[in-house]
Amino acid sequence: MNPNHTAKKNLGWRRIGKASSYSLAGLKRIWLDEEAFRMEVWIGVVLLLPLLLIQFTALERVALAGVWILVLIVEVLNSAIEAAIDQISDEWHDLSGKAKDLGSLAVMLVLILAALVWGVILGAKFLG
To answer: Which residues are catalytic?
Structure first.
């Protein structure tokens, strides 16, 4: 933080409002800049539509929706890692490559988790 910054602290409702505006700005940025995020949102919409049509327990609905929200969260964090690395330098460095590769791995692992959760719940629902 800038030590010369003299603006009033954002407390209470003002803080919630500021945080919300920053979050919406982040959503706009990732939507415009990251094709992977847009794809995951649309895949999620297609996957989650059956939640409205098929009878699931509340816990199954939370698990199916929650694991997909987790996919989006990890994608956001991966994009943040990539942006930070790219801001530091555009030159290749092993540690920069490692950070980006690990972020990508996190996305892949959460996609595997999502596939497992969806497969188990849908398998139990339709295959008994």
So the answer is: 75
Residue with tokens 């199916």: 64
Q: Using one digit for the tens of pLDDT, what is the confidence trace for 81-99? A: 999 999 998 888 899 999 9
For residue 82, count CB atoms less than 10 angstroms from its CB and return exposed for 0-12, middle for 13-18, buried for 19 or more: middle
- What class does CATH assign to 34-127? mainly alpha
Note whether 110 and 70 are within 8 A (CB).
yes
- pTM: predicted TM-score of the whole model, two decimal places: 0.84
Q: Compute the distance between CA of residue 98 and CA of residue 48 in angstroms, rounded to an integer.
A: 33
Residue ranges per structural domain of the chain = 34-127
Cα of first residue to Cα of last residue in the chain, in angstroms, is 56
pLDDT in tens, 23-41: 999 999 999 999 999 999 9
